């Protein structure tokens, strides 16, 4: 799915589905992710070890098989956003945001790149563009880009309504480990306290017509977040699915082999 269709689907109340890429490298992985099951992928440049060149190649590979490619940058920094956009990413996920002004600057960077300096500051402060021609040019260039803001701490949750009103935002991301840790209940994702907080994030975000993305690490967890109202569905990661598939299939194979051997011996 292309980024325009991603945004259109979400804005109309629909859901989209994707996964995180933080394990595979090289140029031959694209075919494995070209399934119609996926609408988008997120390349993890926060916890992954990808170089700028590798990210650019991976963006091109993902786009070549019809996927929207979003890059999770390492920090809420407009410079890192510019690097991801220069790699031709369809959007960015900005992690662990707590500062309204920084969110505003990051959100506008997605829409205004490569505008810089005083011209950039004028748009951020008063939405004053150098000219209508510049405004139209940037809208044509960046209007389809996707900006996702990471709400991953209780500090951010408590100021959520204010934070997501700053700048053009297309999605809110929740990292369950970061959020639960900041709440003092690391990875206790079945507790009422955590689920109530997640419900609050979804409710407040949806009141701004902003869909929520919660990283689910199991089918049960992803389905639970969808039940709560998450529509920007992010399930698992490449590494987790590869290791899970290996474990599942070889457990079955080893079990069948043992049973067969035992039956033959009998």
SS content category: alpha/beta
Q: Under the CATH scheme, which class?
A: Alpha Beta
User: How many strands, which pairing sense, and closed or not: the largest β-sheet?
Assistant: 8 strands, parallel, barrel
CATH level-two architecture: Alpha-Beta Barrel
Q: Between the first and last Cα atoms, what is the distance in angstroms? A: 55 Å
Q: Give the overall silhouette.
A: globular
CATH superfamily membership: Phosphoenolpyruvate-binding domains
What's the CATH topology label? TIM Barrel
**Multimeric status of the protein:** single chain
Strand order of the main beta sheet, please? 1-2-3-4-5-6-7-8
Q: Treating each run of at least 4 consecutive H or I residues as one helix, how many helices?
A: 12
Determine the strand fraction and express it as a percent band: 15-25%
- Pick out the low-confidence regions: 260-266
Report the strand count: 8
Structural notes for this entry:
- The protein is α/β, with parallel strands linked by helices and 266 residues long.
- It has one domain (3-237): TIM Barrel, CATH 3.20.20.60.
- Helix content is 51%, strand content 15%.
- It contains 12 helices and 8 strands.
- The chain has helices spanning 3-11, 52-64, 78-86, 100-112, 117-126, 132-142, 154-158, 160-163, 176-182, 192-207, 219-228, 238-265, and strands at residues 16-21, 40-44, 68-72, 91-94, 146-150, 171-174, 212-216, 232-237.
- It has an 8-stranded parallel beta barrel with strand order 1-2-3-4-5-6-7-8, surrounded by 8 helices.
- Helix 3 links the parallel strand 3 (68-72) and strand 4 (91-94).
- The longest helix has 28 residues, at 238-265.
- The chain is globular.
- The model is unreliable at 260-266 (pLDDT under 50).
